[in-house]
Amino acid sequence: MFRKHDVVRLRARLGLTQEKFAKKLEVSVWAVSKWEQGLHEPTGRCLRALERLAKLLRMKIMLPIILALIAFGVISTAHAADIAAGKEKVLFVCSECHGMTGISDVENFPNLAGQKEMYLTIQLKAFKSGKRNDEEMTPEAKQLTDADIANVAAYYSSQQCSPKRAER
Ligand code: HEC
Predict the structure, then answer these.
(1) What CATH number should be reported for the domain whose range is 4-71?
(2) Is any ligand 1 atom within 6 A of the Cβ of residue 98?
């Protein structure tokens, strides 16, 4: 609903004269003036056009605020890895070969426990894209979304292993 004050306020926020405002809405200046005096209320196409303008204006005001929040890290666009979701995926998909804790029982299946998160992510993406190929691992990786990859990488990376450095 657009009452006279709403129309006046919207036009003021847009910084438009009655003429320019009327032109934008494709109505006569007379109509705008009647709305602002409260002699008529906008209906139909005009009402929808006004609502569209108001919505556009709200977005224009919100956009710099949202961008600032992202810039200052208040809102994160990157989805933080979810270890619990990663654990569930590992339980149903990966554990059969790499073990629930990332220590495998099979000689040709690598251990993943405590591996660097970024390394795991890169390898899983390489399998998924076909850059790295393995008969057993490729079909598994192809079924993972980017979020799955981030989650399982975070999960396996969080698992304990006891690495020994090479003797010098
Ligand atoms: C059917 C067995 C199987 C399943 C299931 C499986 N993998 Fe693998 N995975 C392998 C094998 C075999 C390799 C070694 C591939 C190679 O030699 O290149 C491997 C390699 C990897 C590597 C690379 C390790 C490295 O050191 O470079 C990662 C990471 C990996 N798997 C993660 C996963 C994740 C996460 C899942 C579950 C979504 C999963 N795998 C499911 C068999 C499996």
Answers:
(1) 1.10.260.40
(2) yes
**Residues near 53 by Cβ (< 8 Å), separated by ≥ 6?**
10, 14, 24, 25
CA of 90, closest atom in ligand 1: 37
- Residue 48's contacts (CB-CB under 8 Å, 6 or more residues apart) are none
Structure-block tokens of residue 130: 């076909």
83-157 adopts what CATH topology? Cytochrome Bc1 Complex; Chain D, domain 2 (1.10.760)
Q: How far apart are CA 86 and CA 163, in angstroms?
A: 23
Q: Are 105 and 95 in contact (CB under 8 A)?
A: no
80-103 pLDDT, tens digit per residue, is 789 999 999 999 999 999 999 999
Question: Under 8 Å CB-to-CB from 96, ≥6 apart: which residues?
Answer: none
Predicted TM-score (pTM) of this structure: 0.63
